[in-house]
Amino acid sequence: MPASTRLPGKSALFVSALLGTVIFTSCASVPQTRSKALPPSTGNTLNQAAPAVESGGGSQKADAAPVPQTRPQLIKKAAMTVIVNSVDPSIDAVTKIINNKQGDLIGLNEYQPTKENARHTASITLRIPQNQLDSTLNELAKLGTVENRNITAEDVSNQLVDVQARLTNLRKTEANLQKIMDRSGSVRDVLSVAQELSNVRQSIEQIDAQLKNLQNQVAYSTITLNLEAAVSSSSQGRGLGSQIQETWNNSSHSVGEFSVGLLKLGIWLMVYSPYLLILAAAIYGLNRWRRNSQPVRPTPPAENYE
């Protein structure tokens, strides 16, 4: 059969075989990517060192390269509660500290006291570079009296290695699929490879975003700072104007409630007025009947004293 003749069945079979080879290669290359933490010559050095141990030679052990120790990748979070004299100036001081440490203010929740014996509090969430965590906590502790302090760390070294390995393998798969797509001749084969290439690129974008998120959490630490006023608010500490305003508001509210009460009473009386009139007429009739039913006493004759 001439070489220029194309058989659809063989072309599809060829593309399927290439896709299977690419997927098998990407799956099989995961352990190889994880083994990059060891030097390339470690395996050969161990193989060469075995005969030397059996023969009693100790010079080969000294030549073996040590396994490099990588620094753990930690996500650090801290929480602190500080008792301060006044919350508002302390918030301004915290803002200055964040700017000096090149950090960011994520959230601020301030709670003004609405009742007596309630404290003015504020909750601040901020992010700073991880290498500035300890110094930032020390400066925040100077704002007042530290009530509690907590630091947690999570090691994500293995997660970073896995994500990087998956990303590397997917990029290799993308390159292989691109080569297959360039060599495919029929439209059906091109569309099949293009669909698979689109799926791989979507996975690359997702894993790349996950990797950047982990790296960002490692690079920046989160601090949750709670500020509490040392002295609770009371009516004695308020000014004369605020007290007069509160008295006026209370009296106005009382007059309004009294007026509404009188209006409601008038409505009730209006609704029940027919029954009240009947009751009043009954009482009036009963009184008249009692007066009429009483016997009339005769008037005694006047005595003549002549």
TrEMBL record:
It comes from the Bacteria. Residues 33-48 have a biased composition (Polar residues). Residues 73-286 form the DUF4349 domain. It holds the Pfam family DUF4349. The keyword Ribonucleoprotein does not apply. The chain crosses the membrane at residues 265-287. InterPro entries: DUF4349. Keywords: Membrane, Transmembrane, Transmembrane helix. Residues 33-68 are annotated as: Disordered. This is DUF4349 domain-containing protein. It comes from Tolypothrix tenuis PCC 7101.
